[in-house]
Amino acid sequence: MKIGLEIHFQLGGNKLFCSCSTEGTELNESFTRKLTPVMGELGKLDTAVEYETIRNRNFLYRASSNSCLVEKDEEPPHPVNPDALKTTIAISKALHCKVLDYTSFMRKIVVDGSNTSGFQRTGIVGMDGYVKTSRGNVRISTITLEEDACRKLSEKEGVVEYSLDRLGIPLIEISTEPDIIDPDHALETAKAIGHYVMSMQNFRGEVDSIRQDVNFSMGFGRVEIKGVSKLSFIKDTIEYEIKRQSSLEAISRILAEKPHEIGNFIDITGMFTNTDSSMIKKSIASGKSVMCARVSACNGLMKHGNYKLGREFADVAKNMGLGGLMHSDEFPAYGLSDEELHSIYSTAGKGDNDAVIVVLGEKSRIEKLKPLLDERFDKILKMQLEETRSATPSGETRYLRPLAGKERMYPETDIPAVKITEAIMESIEKLVPKSLEETMNELTKKFKLSQVEAESLINNNLLSLFKALAGNFDNPHILSRILLQTIPELENKKGKKLSQVQMVDIFGNQYLEARQLPQYHNTDSILELSRREKWDRNTFETALSLYIIDNIPVSELEKREELKMLNDNEIKKILDELVKDGNVTQKNVIPLFRGKTKQSFNPSDVIKIFVTMQNQK
Amino acid sequence: MLIGQKIIFSYKGQEYAGTYISSGKNTITVKLGSGYNITVDASSIEIKKEYSMEKGDKPGAETKNSGCGENGVCILTTGGTIASSVDYTTGAVKPVKDISYLYNFVNNISQFKLYHESIDNILSENVNAEKWVQFARKARDAMKKGNSVIIFHGTDTMQYSASALSFMFEEQTEPIIFTGSQRSSDRPSSDAFLNIEGSIHFASTDMGEVGIAMHTDTSDDSISLYRATRARKMHTSSRDAFKSISEPPLGLYADGKVKEIKNIRHKSDSIILKDRLDKNIGLIYFYPGMAEEDFYNLSYNKKAVIIMGTGLGHTSTGIIDVIRKLSRETHFFMTSQCIYGNVNMNVYSTGRELIDAGVIPLQNMLAETAMVKAMYLSANYPDNFVELMQKNLRGEFEDTVK
What letter would DSSP give residue B63? Predict the structure, then answer.
């Protein structure tokens, strides 16, 4: 078994080839484009590009507040974002890579519409490094700096809708050699690599900021699985793929001795004029056809136990924009009557050992499907499974497109090669991230955090924020508690993650600084209020709750009774009253005290003053 | 080493296999197996082995100029982005001679008989009057064989070339459509494919003048046709850079057909080409503080000078004195750097003084169009030059167009 990883990390701040922010909202403005396949540098058409041509889709793009003519492909790219480049060099150094003398950007042709230009700009920064793991070094083949693609919003009727907000966000891609031993090791490797990027100040740190591709082979060709969204899914995804390929191997063995083929598609739309199947009725009403074909010798292999040949075919149909592919192993389903099934089977010429597939959609599209199904069937029988697949949120994989080759790369002529000068190399020395071990040491020794606290800060991508804010707190534990407990708890209670604006309201410009974003905050933050008013931990937490749960604006917090700290005189006054009321002891003084005031106080101060008063008596 | 040659080299202590792409001043660029090019200092790399070139390693060879046949659409390529692709030796965009690959990628043109002739290989900033004459003669030859004409041209100076041909052809038997692209045709997002598609359809209408066909807006859904003499490139890089100034477009191509076409001159029965141009014409952009000496030097001994004045058509007082001195030898015409709107030299005293000094206002004619028109008139109608400059010949005056 061979496993390699390609991990993508987004950087925050500005986009890679223009000065738009990486953060933005969608706008109503939209435009449509088509992409035309073109040849690569050596004059050949890439197979993945050719495949996309057959799909012939239209693309609709929604502009966003963080997009300009560069994202619209209406202007050449601006010079590369120097911060993103420096970060990539720093990470290359940390992962023991050779940093190239020049960064040359290439155009990687991608005609699924996810880039308005029809290509992704990408350049190698570092090569040939390694990352240490408990089971030996995993070699790093390349570290590239590239632009992220558009975010897909929807796809229907041959039109794919994209948002421009994500397009152009700097993306660091770290690719390993296939040195990973098993799914557990893949997870460990991803974590080890992730640590370096996540300790960088300009790591973006949003939900979708890390995406993993898994390269996997168990002897039947390389499968590239795109877009594993969470670390924990790496394992599930590899395990799913092992199961899928093993089952296909079993199918290919069963079929080896039998004659097998997919018959021609036959139009059976006329059969369903009075059908009870609402799905078929709806499809015919919208002008689509129903067609069926015999798959000889495959009865029971389409969907039975581990056998899922039907899904292999359905993936191909789905990519062609065809709603669905039904097959005889799942019949009678979809509201088909016995009579209808009988005529489908006899029209297709189904024998006992044969399966039948039924497809709904435009006739012209279904006719293009046949050669693609033949190709897929042939690949499975020969067990040549190399292709690009996508990871699903449930840890499975789906066919995406043929594996793209080198033919889709050609130089980005609008950006001259960037010389990595000695001055640049010197300036990044202080940026080079520390290893996980060193970071843990720093957190536990310098900030005196517990092992658990330190790990949580790192795993939740709070390291750079913690380090930036720690100076504001006498006790770093309070900050780690606020970041790791108070805020997540309040977010849970509210049922919503805090927005960037809210984080800035809480921590002020220091938050923006820590995230390397432009600083704009001119009014008080909760953190500044807290320092001025000398709040204790409880009061700070009360303020956060008022702000997050009760939506009290920061400017009004200052006036709130419950946030005003009692001074010694005020405490003495309340204690005097309590003593007058009688029955007050050192044990019950705090609850009684709390009953007398809405304001904040430090319980240890109250006790101290109470004891002094008692002693004076 | 040759481009495309496979090599083995060592770099920073490690060996790699790759394909040689190019060398810079002190650098070398190699394509790795992954398709990525890397550029490194030439001194830091050691070539360990050079493989001999295999068949098929060479980048595609150029095919021959096919020339124009009869009764079809003749595409004349002159260079520019639309007929450009990546030059792998320099990494820059360079013109290509063979456009046959475009035919496979343009939709909805199978019903047309297409010919292609490469008549030049020039970036549009290098186009000049001699080239206009050459383009016009090639277009005449194509029309003589019953072909309509499409000229692929760099967008930067397309409006000058199109206007020049518009004046030079007093009568024409077929449409002549200029088109170009803002994104080179070696990129999947190129606007070239739809621009060509629209141009071919416009070239099959009964239009008897010269037009420019380019994207209507940023979307890949329609192509607008503009009158050559009213068109202007109004954006450095966007697909919809070309606009028709103060006049609606003449036609629209969308959903696979020409949707509308109006206000055009129709085809003639014969071709009249006046293929002489007077190069001794000046175009001066006036700016505040412009030295009189500079204006004098730019105007001296010119047959005519088109001034792009401020606002309604003004220059500084000092320049008026220069014009007064030179206007016995040189004709001065006024256009506006505002682009939109008419010149009106009666509103302010400066305007009246300029008229008094001999300047002739050109209403709303575009300055670039006026310059080309002057080149045509001066060479062919020297006796009626000033009179014809003020007469609408090819729709260059917007409000008198018909």
Answer: P
